[in-house]
Please model this.
Amino acid sequence: MKARQMIIAGMAVTLLAAAGPVRAEVKIGKEYMTGGFAIGCQAYTFNRFSAFEAIEKTAQTGSKVIEFFPGQKLSKEEPNLKVDHDASDAVIDKLKKKLAQHKIKAVNYGVVAIPKEEAGARKIFEFAKKMGLRAITTESVDSIDTIEKLVKEFDIAVGYHNHPRQPKNPNYKVWDPNFILDLVKNRDPRIGASADTGHWLRSEVNPLEALKILKGHIVSSHLKDLDKTGRDAHDVPYGTGVANIKACLDELKKQKFKGNIAIEYEYNWDNSVPEVTQCIDFVRQYGKGK
Model:
């Protein structure tokens, strides 16, 4: 009987190995969801303010999650302290206490360059682990081997972000969803895309079609609606632009997307809270079937 149990156990291990890596990164609880999605602010929306103010403004919009970016000053009182992967444990503790005060969960960090050199990359993953983040956002294509190693070690996902196409720089390829798909499809399933719909529009890429191309590989999203396509377009509240946000949400829902959606609102920088709130309300109403 014991020998038989050992054989069965061995078969189970073999089957699990054949199925590929288990995707078990930090889950975002339902209490942080709005309209069925973990939607909140990318702190870069409030880059003219401190991280503490970004948390406050995120709470004002009705958001429950936030994505930080590297280099934002911690607070008006301590502007020399920065939010990044070089932050001390004391700074991280202050940041976490501010988040708890406003019932906001930090879920992501980026866009950040991840070096090939493991020691430098490790600092980023250690910061993410201390913050309890689900994912990191990057565009560091050449570091993917190092990234994959650390994703497996830390159980933290990584999403490849897309800025607009650079016509004078053919080496910049992450604007193309097909390139990202080829990059990540044979990697650990915790490595995928951080889908920026606004930058796809600026690259003359249809956001809905891009999401479909990346089905099963979307880690997070910078969900944007723009007033038009092209490089000189600007952010507008969801449902008032050309991105077809409802269809994008439908597609993410269909894909059983579990990552965070970050509103990176790059317009009306000094007073964007009302417009970001409209985006949150759009998703809240979407969740109600409206």
Observations:
- The domain at 32-287 is CATH 3.20.20.150 (TIM Barrel).
- The chain has a mean pLDDT of 93.
- The longest helix spans residues 2-19.
- Residues 30 and 38 are 8 Å apart (CA to CA).
